[in-house]
Design goal:
- Residues 321-340 are annotated as: Disordered.
- Belongs to the SurE nucleotidase family.
- The chain is of the alpha/beta class.
- It is 29% helix and 19% strand.
- The protein has a 9-stranded mixed sheet with strand order 3-4-2-1-5-6-7-11-8, sandwiched between helices.
- The structure holds 2-acetamido-2-deoxy-beta-D-glucopyranose.
- The site of 2-acetamido-2-deoxy-beta-D-glucopyranose (NAG) has 3 residues, from loops.
Amino acid sequence: MRFPSILTGAAITLFFSGVCNGVNILMSNDDGFGSGNLRQLYDMLTGVGHNVYIVAPALQQSGQGGRVDFTTEANLTGPTQYNLVAGGAPSIGADPIDSHIWYYNGTPAACIFVGLDYVLPKFADFAVPDLVLTGPNYGTNLGPFVWTLSGTAGAAYAATARSIPAIAISGSNTAVPYYEVDGPDHDAHRVASVSFKIVEAIIKSSPPKHSILPLGYGINVNIPPLDDNHESVPVVQTRMTGGAEVDEAVPGKTPGTFTWANLSPRAAGVNQCLNGDCDLPGETEVVAAGKIALSLYTVDYTAPTTPRTNSLMQRLTKLTGWTGGKEGGKKGGHSRRWRA
Ligand SMILES: *[C@@H]1O[C@H](CO)[C@@H](O)[C@H](O)[C@H]1NC(C)=O
């Protein structure tokens, strides 16, 4: 929120608590800072008084996952997406028409770090956002395999790792420059509108003075194709596994080359339920049925302990002379050491 500078501290408190309950938000994506989806959601969030900054890639950066790539060039070697900024300009900068919107010539996860460690502390009136939002992406990001590949996801789990609540959002519409979104019937407006409602509900669900999500948790939202009835599409709590896809390599058009396809039938490994509530439906299937899927994720990838994993570890202990194990660990801090 950009409140007038004449407000006193007390007035600001009143303004925050009584009027708009604005929160501080950092947005990013992998489609680029000129994305129609991104800017539609930004407009809706700022419209209700949230204080929002965007730090998003100068160019399209899909499929980068959590890769953190900082450019080594001080200046852009070519124009940014949609020629919004000319080549030769600095590799990081604000949008020519909105000082809250920044581009950076790096991967989505790099944009999150540059946002947290440079743009916000230096140019915003807050340093640590209450929430990071990534997307809405053009195209869904469904299932555990795609989760690690997606730049939308990568930017979200980078924020979660930095202790900041994050929501990754993916829609089913196609790319559009922000200046071509021409009203409420546009797909980008619909995707943003549905996203906005979900984000608002999540923000309002958090108890006062509490983080918007538990530490180490984030949310993955996937939105099916939308029509006129988009306001009534149900939101279903889902899990990442369940009907999820994984890639296989198939011959490309040029002999000796390969491309990817979705493995069919679906692989059991990517659909094994290991964490969370196994009774929840899979997000892939829920979106295929035309509903909005909402999965909680954590950045703790540690596998559950089972009799089978215990016996595996016992065998390793015998084979390698590994010191440690259960008896060596202290509560809350098991550090297991191997003899060199
Ligand atoms: C980058 O551009 C600025 C002008 O915006 C220029 O002063 C500077 O020399 C350029 N840096 C490089 C490494 O080309």
